[in-house]
């Protein structure tokens, strides 16, 4: 497969005049997209970026993101995408852990990125949302640097329930293969398609199924930097969007947007949902209101991401994550790694060309996650007689807030830094719109004082806005196991919080 960026060069050679990227009134053709990415590659090379170096990207869904992403790949670099809502301390960790050579950020993330880069002793380049002129060489359009299938293209940071975030190493073959499988077997994309680009490109779902699949299909990607249900519906009508990809919260917000039933969504031919479980009521309501079939699937950062899906020409089962995609195997195993009987609950284990190379710089964690070439997902599911999988629970205690993954340990660590906090447990709070929200039960140190509002504000100032606990309550003690470990699943949520 070689360098993932070769897909852009090949598509440009065939469909160069077609619209590749749209954002508002701005449109880049595939030829313009290719030229801009090649100039970025030349600019990075002029700054000393060599094949295998890591380049941090801190941008929302703006035209500059795809240009920078493919430009970095053309130069042979590996990309470290980051949420533009991250604070300096979070960016600092990603930059230091990945050993990034430089970090590129949009203006809104400029201060946090510059602070983090300064601490790490590397350069921060602040670019415009449309074209990253500050990083584009005036001349020189280099070919894609040759890369092996097993070379790292992207390092995506994902946290576990313990320890610091881990960088999932996704190779050129991982990402190119998964994008091609999605484009050919699920999207069935053509150059006439317009794909809604509202899934964050700094997440693997948006990166693979949105950007990379669009490039492979020579389709147009209509970018939406900040999601809003009514705005998304108007964008579908204006840009004649044929494929909508989103997390369940996005579907819900479109369904409940003002005048949703009068929106012109006639161009839509396919809707794809992932990132969290889609409530069956939302799926049925969306399909009834907008007349478009929703295909639900499942994946993770470590699997590039697509593992399974309700396929377009097969039976669709609402509430199911479908069956494995082409080339991917899925088993349900017990704690010892043995298969569980059909119909019983087991942990999802995945094997295939989509499974990551490993966790960056963490061989022990890699060996634990992939002990026998089968990646242990931490998600629990059952399989019916027809082979369809149904998620029943998460073995990991991750919170999914509107499609964003939030890891309790990370938020707890921030709260523990408050001088009044003795113990804390961060847990999921059911939310009708977001699916889950973040809650924190806190025990104060003897003689110390702090209010719930103070603790909420303390956390809000130190983590990305989507992560901080909206619900904080003080307790005398937290439930613990025999070894003294705090049992998050046994934390009692106050009635006034649970009923909000």
Provide structural commentary.
It contains 14 helices and 25 strands. With 500 residues, it is of the alpha/beta class. A hairpin with a 3-residue loop joins strand 23 (421-431) and strand 24. It is globular and about 65 Å long. The model has no long low-confidence stretch (mean pLDDT 93).
Shape: globular
Average predicted confidence as pLDDT: 93
Question: Roughly how much helix do the residues carry, as a percent range?
Answer: 25-40%
How do the strands line up in the largest sheet?
11-12-13-14-15
Note the main sheet: 5 strands, mixed
Structural class of the helices, strands and pairings?
A: alpha/beta
Q: How many H/I helical runs? A: 14
Give the strand tally: 25
Q: Give the termini distance in whole angstroms.
A: 50 Å
Indicate the low-confidence ranges by residue numbers.
Answer: none
Radius of gyration based on Cα positions: 22 Å
Strand proportion = 25-35%
Short description:
This protein is of the alpha/beta class. 30% of the residues lie in helices and 26% in strands.
List the defining traits of the structure above.
500 residues; alpha/beta; 26% strand
Topology:
Layout: H1 6-15, E1 19-23, E2 26-29, H2 30-46, E3 54-58, H3 64-74, E4 78-82, H4 88-98, E5 102-106, H5 110-120, E6 123-127, E7 152-158, E8 166-171, H6 172-187, E9 194-197, H7 204-217, E10 220-223, H8 229-239, E11 243-246, H9 248-255, E12 270-273, H10 280-290, E13 294-299, E14 306-309, E15 323-324, E16 329-333, E17 346-351, E18 358-359, H11 363-369, E19 375-383, E20 389-394, E21 399-401, E22 404-406, H12 408-416, E23 421-431, E24 435-444, H13 452-460, E25 471-474, H14 495-498
């Amino acid at each position: 497969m070689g360098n993932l960026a070769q897909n852009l060069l090949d598509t440009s050679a065939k469909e160069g005049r077609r619209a590749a990227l749209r954002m508002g009134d701005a449109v880049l053709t595939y030829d313009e997209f290719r030229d801009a990415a090649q100039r970025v590659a030349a600019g990075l090379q002029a700054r000393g970026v060599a094949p295998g170096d890591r380049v941090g990207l801190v941008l929302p869904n703006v035209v500059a993101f795809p240009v920078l992403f493919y430009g970095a790949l053309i130069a042979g670099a590996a990309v470290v995408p980051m949420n533009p809502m991250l604070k300096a301390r979070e960016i600092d960790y990603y930059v230091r852990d990945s050993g990034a050579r430089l970090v590129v950020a949009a203006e809104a993330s400029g201060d946090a990125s510059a602070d983090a880069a300064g601490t790490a002793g590397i350069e921060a380049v602040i670019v415009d949302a449309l074209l990253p002129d500050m990083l584009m060489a005036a001349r020189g359009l280099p070919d894609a640097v040759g890369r092996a299938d097993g070379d790292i293209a992207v390092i995506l940071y994902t946290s576990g329930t313990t320890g610091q975030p881990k960088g999932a190493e996704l190779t050129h073959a991982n990402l190119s293969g998964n994008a091609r499988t999605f484009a050919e077997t699920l999207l069935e994309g053509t150059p006439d398609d317009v794909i809604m680009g509202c899934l964050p490109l700094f997440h693997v779902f948006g990166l693979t199924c949105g950007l990379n699949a669009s490039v492979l299909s020579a389709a147009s990607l209509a970018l939406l930097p900040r999601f809003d249900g009514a705005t998304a519906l108007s964008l579908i009508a204006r840009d004649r969007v044929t494929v909508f990809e989103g997390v369940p919260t996005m579907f819900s917000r479109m369904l409940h947007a003002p005048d949703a039933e009068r929106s012109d969504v006639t161009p839509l031919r396919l809707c794809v949902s992932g990132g969290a479980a889609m409530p069956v009521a939302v799926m049925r309501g969306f399909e009834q209101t907008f007349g478009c079939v929703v295909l639900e699937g499942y994946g993770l950062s470590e699997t590039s991401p697509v593992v399974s899906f309700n396929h377009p020409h097969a039976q669709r089962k609402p509430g199911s994550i479908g069956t494995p995609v082409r080339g991917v195997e899925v088993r349900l195993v017990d704690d010892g790694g043995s298969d569980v009987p059909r119909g019983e609950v087991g942990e999802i284990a995945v094997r295939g060309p989509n499974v990551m190379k490993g966790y960056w710089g963490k061989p022990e964690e890699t060996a634990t996650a992939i002990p026998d070439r089968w990646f242990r997902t931490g998600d629990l599911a059952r399989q019916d007689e027809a082979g369809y999988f149904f998620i029943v629970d998460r073995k990991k205690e991750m919170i999914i807030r509107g499609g964003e993954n939030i890891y309790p340990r990370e938020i707890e660590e921030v709260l523990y830094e408050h001088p009044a906090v003795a113990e804390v447990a961060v847990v999921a709070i059911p939310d009708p719109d977001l699916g889950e929200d973040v809650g924190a039960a806190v025990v104060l140190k003897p003689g110390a004082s702090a209010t719930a509002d103070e603790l909420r504000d303390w956390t809000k100032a130190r983590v990305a806005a989507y992560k901080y606990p909206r619900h904080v309550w003080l307790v005398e003690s937290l439930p613990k196991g025999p070894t003294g470990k705090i049992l998050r699943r046994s934390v009692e949520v106050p009635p006034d919080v649970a009923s909000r």
